[in-house]
Here is the input.
Amino acid sequence: MNEQSLQEPARKAYRAMVMARAFDTKISALYKAGKIFGGVFLGRGHEAVAAAEGVFLRKGYDVYTPFIREQAGRCAWGDSVLESARSYFGSMQGISRGRDGNIHWGHPHEGTLMPISHLGAMASVVAGLMLAKRMQGITDAVGVVCIGDGTTSVGALHEAANLIAVEKLPIVIVVTNNQYAYSTPNANEFACKSLADRGRGYGMTTHECDGTDFLQTLATMQRAISAARAGEGPQWVVAETLRMCGHGEHDDASYIPAELRAAYADRDPLAVARRQMLEKGWMSEEEADAWEEECRDEVQRSVAQAQKEPTPRPQDEQWVATSWRPER
Amino acid sequence: MSVTYIDAIHAALEELLQEDASVILYGEDIAGSFGGAFKATKGLADKFPGRVLNAPIAEDAIVGLGMGAALGGLKPIVEMQFADFGTLGQNQMCNNAAAHFYRTGIPVNLTMRMPCGGTPGGGPYHSQCLEAVFAHYPGVHVFTPATVADAYYMLKEAVRIPDPVVFMEHKFLYRWLKADSWLEADPLPIGRARIARPGKHATVVAFSAMVPEALRAAEELAASSGYELEVVDLRTVKPLDTDTILASVARTARLLVVSEDFPWGGVAAEVIARVATEGMHLLDAPPLRVTAPDTPIPAHPDLWKAHRPGYENIMAAARYLISL
Here is the structure.
């Protein structure tokens, strides 16, 4: 694929990253002000990987299973930050109407799944969706499963990855190795040299990239997603980055050594992307500034709207967990 | 002609595949000429190409795949080779599929077949009854058929109902329980318990393989002592038909609950809790239960027979209950 073919996806992905950063910044501030129930999980350091996932997918046709740091991917896929805000505030306009919250939201009929907190659990669910599509005669749809380094240790992920490979399903498993699973460093999490070894072990085609290098990440994800779409079987992508925030906003990440932070000091994916876009001439300074302003405004409007929307009324809750009930 | 409980399950699976193109079967060893560890799917892979699929040994992923296929518009029936291994699929069933409707308003039309219960020599890991641990979670229905006709009818209903259903099919009943036909003129709707035998001296609530044991106990007790036990077959432990149980207790004033499962937090405890909280005034004696002891299920047939509740235990408990 020639580099020029990346220009439009790159513009869309960059704008999604700007939007995600604006949203994360706002939600973090609201968390610190005590305005959010439950945890807040940011995508700092993950934006390039996430945006590169979402930008090559077709909403309503493909399947996308964001992990907790995929706000930029959600934006690139085409979901508005209003939906994310609704989840954080428990709006009755959101999918879970306060019954779940924070990053647990998706629109299953549009192709985003509702994640559960048990890591690795969604991979086999995506396998089922892709199997259903295959049986319905759809062979050019792709499913993207987003996981982190920690999830590669989970049994459910292993079961699913093996099954996906056995069934040759058009699925891309993206492992964003941000060096820490909560506070646990890679050294305590796995003993193989590279997490790509795991993908090879399953019999998948593997790809590796520097997840802080925007253009490299885009090109890698484009290759992986195109290959899966073209029927070349499951793909395993490992993107290296650093989680440039706490696990959640309750966590100061003081366990990340200063040297490691310093090594990533000039590798903020958003700053790298801006520099690369300007160098390529794929975006002007004026555009970049305008996008930042637009995104901040949209985040502001969306958060204000979500905060105004009705929240669940306990007195209206029916406390019923099944759609079917016996006749009495 | 005589048919068995497993014949009824096979027939239901075949008809489901025939009647609805969105039905698929997924599980370990179910395809090819093998047709499953208990032959419940024998011949179906040939008859319905591409819709009866072998899975790797991965119970978590099998149930997860089933959930995804259901969200994708199919009506998957996944098989755990033994219910005991259902613990490995439990996270997907209980935390993912079962919670989905409450969290999103979108039900997951997934049926999980669980060959359960003890057989001689089965041992600790091929014998368990896990209805209680699945029923513990919100969002799931748990079916426990005790007759050939219910094995057929309730499996078909499990797929018709849009929510996750755990279908506990008892391995001891597979080839032991026989009937003239699996078809019943007017089956009771799902969610209604059945008066399997009317009686007046005590109510015995049972389900799954304990229903034939309770019926035998009732016959022998009637013959030897003239006491008439009323046997209630729960059919589904979730939903639990408290109304039918309370109506029976209102007639007999005595309650004995029988479960093959371990005692702790089981279905027997739940039934007694409901009768105690909603119908204490109906009881002339404390409610009793007969369950397995609180140990793993032993392998040796002599030990297993002593571990598993049978008609003799039920008779003894009933005699004691009536004497109170």
About this structure: Chain A has a mean pLDDT of 97.
